Amino acid sequence: MRQPQQDARLERYSRAARRDLRRRNGLDWAIFALGAGLILWGVIEGASRMPYNWQWYRIPPFFFRIVEGELVWGPFVRGLLVTLQITLWGALLAFAIGLATALLRLSRSFTGHALATAYLELVRNTPLLVQMYLFYFVLSPILGIDRFWTGVLALAVFEASFISEIIRGGILSVPRGQWEAASALGLRPLPAYARVVLPQAVPLMLPPLTSSLVNLIKNSAIVSTIAIFDLTNEGRDAIAATFLTFEIWLTVAAVYLSLTLTLSALAGWLERRARRPDRRAA
What we know:
Layout: H1 2-49, E1 64-67, E2 70-73, H2 75-106, H3 110-124, H4 128-143, H5 147-172, H6 176-184, H7 189-219, H8 231-242, H9 245-281
Antiparallel strand pairs: 1-2
Keywords: Amino-acid transport, Cell membrane, Membrane, Transmembrane, Transmembrane helix, Transport
Protein name: Amino acid ABC transporter membrane protein 1 (PAAT family)
Transmembrane segments: 26-44, 86-106, 127-145, 248-270
C-alpha cells in the first residue's frame, strides 16, 4: 500500500514542478518581450528623429535581382558564401590544431608540452589583426598560398588557441575511473581517447565550442583587411557606391546575427540530443 501512495505523491510533486516551471518560463518570455519591445521602440523613435533619409528599398538588389526573367545573386550573397567557406574551413582546421595542442598539453612529453604552451601564450596574447597581417605579408609569400587560405589559416590558428583549452578541460572532466577502465581493457592512449574519453567529453564541450565557432564567424570579418571579398568587404564596397551607411551596416549586422543565432540553436539541439542516452540510462 505504501508504494502506490509514494508514486501518487511523486506524481503530484512532478505536476506541481512542471506548473511552476511553465509559470517561470512565461514570466521570462514576458520580460524578454517587454525588453525587446522597448529596444525596438527606442531604435524606431531614434531613427525617426534623425535628419537622415532612410532608403531601405535599395537594399534588396544587393541580395538578388531579376534580370530578363533570370535570378541573379547580388554581392551580399556572394560575400556571404565566402564568409561561410572561410568559417567552415577555419573551424575544421581550428579543431584539428586545437585537438593536437590539447593532447600535447596533456602529454608527458616536456618538449610537446612546452611547444603547446608557447603557442598558446603567443597567439592568445597578441591581436588577431596583427596576426592576420603577419600571415599575409610574411608567411603567405613563404608558403606560397593565396589570400583566401592565408585568412583561413590565420583565423584557425587564432581560434585553435581557445578551442584547445576547451578540449583539454572537457578531457580532464572525464572521471579517472574511465581512464583506468580503458587501461584495464588493454586500450592504448589514442584508442582510449577515441572510444572512451571523447564520447563522454564532447557533450560537455559543445556549449563552449559553439561560442568559439560564433567568435570565428564574427572574427571572419577581419579577412576583409587583406582584400578578401567576404560579406564585410562587400558591404564596404556597397557603401562606397551608394553612401547608404546605416542601411548597409545594419543589414550586414543582421546577416551575421542570423548566422550566429542559427548556429547557437543548432548547437543547443545537438547538446540535448547528445545527453539523451544519459537520461535514458539514469
